[in-house]
Design a protein that fits this description.
This protein is an all-alpha fold. It contains seven helices and no strands.
């Protein structure tokens, strides 16, 4: 698989994973770009110990976790409290936006599991990416779904 094909296959999926971490379009775009720069630099060294997709997801999740650590060491500024939230005009967009918001509020490991699941990455692969058992991923996935469902029901 050449780089162009890899990029076409995985860039949108990796972007959505990053968006699930941060709920910030520009930051997700930057992390996606950093991920594919790393893929480009190290593609010749890829040893096929796992699938190319698993390798790329692992790079992306590591980049996201690194960004979270950077964010913890740098203070962030808050938006003004009098800023009013503008409701999206389309119900589907609103639900999707809320889903990304709720996912971004999850602990890091849960974000990884749910965002990779939303990208149709099999649970066995998710277990391989994050280094826990498949059974543990399955249990965590159901707990995460329950958390997200509760948040949606609690907020209309």
């Amino acid at each position: 698989m050449d780089f162009d094909e890899i990029y076409k296959t995985y860039s949108t999926k990796i972007f959505r994973v990053c968006l699930g971490y941060f709920n910030d379009y520009d930051l997700a775009k930057d992390i996606t770009q950093e991920t594919f720069i790393t893929v480009w630099k190290h593609l010749a060294k890829f040893k096929n110990r796992s699938s190319i997709g698993t390798w790329i997801y692992k790079i992306a999740t590591n980049k996201c976790l690194s960004q979270i650590q950077k964010g913890k060491s740098h203070p962030t500024s808050e938006l003004p409290s009098n800023l009013k939230y503008i409701e999206p005009s389309f119900e589907k967009e609103e639900k999707l936006s809320r889903l990304h918001q709720y996912i971004s509020e999850l602990p890091e490991l849960e974000k990884i599991i749910i965002t990779l699941s939303l990208e149709d990455v099999p649970q066995e692969k998710i277990a391989e990416i994050i280094g826990i058992s498949h059974a543990n991923v399955r249990v965590k996935f159901h707990r995460i779904k329950a958390k997200l469902t509760k948040k949606f029901k609690g907020n209309g």
